[in-house]
Amino acid sequence: MIYSHEELLGHTRLPLTIAEIILFIIIIYLLLAVGGKWRIWLGALLLVYWIVLVAGKFWPPPKVAVPKSPLATKIAVREDPTTANFVWSSEYRVGFWWHFFPAKKYFLIYNRALEEKILTQDDFIIPAHLGDQDLALVHSRGYLLRLYLLAFTPMGFINGENPISWYILKKLKVACGGTYLACKIALEQGIGMNLGGGFHHAFAGHEEGFCHLNDMAVAIRKLQVERFIDRAMVIDCDVHQGNGTAAIFQGDDTVFTFSIHQDDLYPYQKAYSNYDISLPGSMRVDDENYLEQLKVLPDLIKKHRPDLVIYLAGADPFKEDRLGGFLLTKQGLMDRDAYVLRLCADRGIPVAVVLGGGYAPNINDTVEIHLNTVRMVNRLLN
Ligand SMILES: [Zn+2]
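YS: structure for the whole thing
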């Protein structure tokens, strides 16, 4: 069953985090309570900090003019051409040890890919981080300032489900660089894969769902501005809707967003992708149902004619995932990967693959699912 957008709406999200509300109460106390001058000064300082922090979320998104003139070249020639198709950085594994997101999976994937001889060192290329100018193609300046403030102050540690530190911010910038590099490899060689990225809940002006910077949106915008591509398509196969990506590209006819996800699941207030397949958990979506739903893709690709596809190979439609209610097996997820990748390859459309989700009780299952995606990419390459 496919739900309409009206049926999907209904839940709202608090514009402030609990930490921001508590900080505001503390500020009011400091400003109003009887006491020494230091209270007033501290209260005023914290108030300025609080206003900048909160205003960042309400900053308007940047207006970027995407060149409409013919492309200078459709081939992305890099300064350091390589035959490596897989992008990975040791910085990807940085994460808070207590956080639900399994950041250590990035290191395990890399290790196992080498140990099991699925890939060699020569198959990997290390990305550079993207700078603020690149991030500002998608994210508002006010929001980037908010991220820096959070990253450099203790508020970053208690920022709801999206804690951030200086090291995490650095890692996220590298992840954006990784997805951008995977896209360029795809444009050169047909297929590229970032063993990271996929932060599809990040909006232009705020963080959500363990995502702060939308690596896919930044990569697409940067490639458009550099005139490597005109049109792009995001095929989001995570069990959660790619709400950030959908919102960023809403009303932009150069980027087509597709998302297949569980309906009765975060994000409860769905965004509008160009094409949403929102399936209720009660439908007990298995391998067969899921693959059947994907059969709309050939028509969508034909209509939109993308110069580049970014495929988010989410690991959380897996039947044992703690955050999802789909019932896909590892084989089903592998068939999904093969289907999407083959679809692009047969039409000569470059495809960049990014990872997503993965909250199985046993992290090795998540790692195995991502490795299977690597295997499918490899199969296409050979
Ligand atoms: Zn997810």
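YS: worth flagging: The chain has one domain: 67-139+165-381.
IM: good catch. Also Strands lie at 86-87, 124-125, 191-194, 232-236, 255-262, 275-279, 308-314, 351-356.
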